[in-house]
């Protein structure tokens, strides 16, 4: 009788545990196949059919380091890498169960090449060392948002979405393609998702769209303007904003105008040149006109209410692209060259 009671108790406990586990899997199943909240495909590259997006990051401006060759140095680190600044998008997908990494990889490769991808390198065999070095260099899963639930297997094992990328049957491709005249960098990696028992393939995509950081987000205060004018006789002010190709000063220039006016109201006898500068995009005559019009717009803003600075104390000049402070060969340099300066007369 005692033995029978123990057997019944054990059976009951087993059933309770099994029931709890099945309820857990049922809850997991509700999340299965659902994209991460607010995640979306990049406009340039659509997902493999039937896949769902489980990891997502989109930064309007940040820096990212990526390998540009499959070679490793003697310390088994990435030999050739590139650090880029701009819009960074990272995506991790799970393909439908039964789709192997090579099939998924080939489909992405074909789509990218059809879009004009210029291949930098590819690794299709024995890529585990490259995967390890890349993971340490680029930390591809850092900062991603993740889908709810887990990766689970037919036998009930579960793995976090964070662990989806693996070295198992990994394949990697890097290249660049043109989009609206801009060079976009693309890194593709596919592998078994977590472990073979999942029967799933994970895909990582990173798209980097280089662009200059928005400048002028911090205005220069009156004391800093005064100090620069005393030591250098001039100062470039990047807190004055205009739409591309236009001379109408924008409302978000107010903070910088406030500080310019504060200085001029404290030094009532000093006169200034207000000098507009452009980058070298477009023809010189148009840039000369635009740079003068922008300088005149600043003078007009400071002369009007609420500042009411005597307009005779300011002389507007346009310098087009005659005095660059950086190279015009990239957007970062061109952004620095587009400026308005105060110069002591």
UniProtKB/TrEMBL annotation:
Signal peptide region: 1-26
Organism (species): Undibacterium flavidum
Protein name per its UniProtKB record: OmpA family protein
PANTHER family: LIPOPROTEIN YIAD-RELATED (PTHR30329:SF21), STATOR ELEMENT OF FLAGELLAR MOTOR COMPLEX (PTHR30329)
Localization per Swiss-Prot or TrEMBL: Cell outer membrane
InterPro entries: Bact_OuterMem_StrucFunc (IPR050330), OMP_bac (IPR006664), OmpA-like (IPR006665), OmpA-like_sf (IPR036737)
Protein keywords: Cell outer membrane, Membrane, Signal
Pfam families named in the record: OmpA (PF00691)
Main location: membrane
OmpA-like domain sequence ranges: 229-345
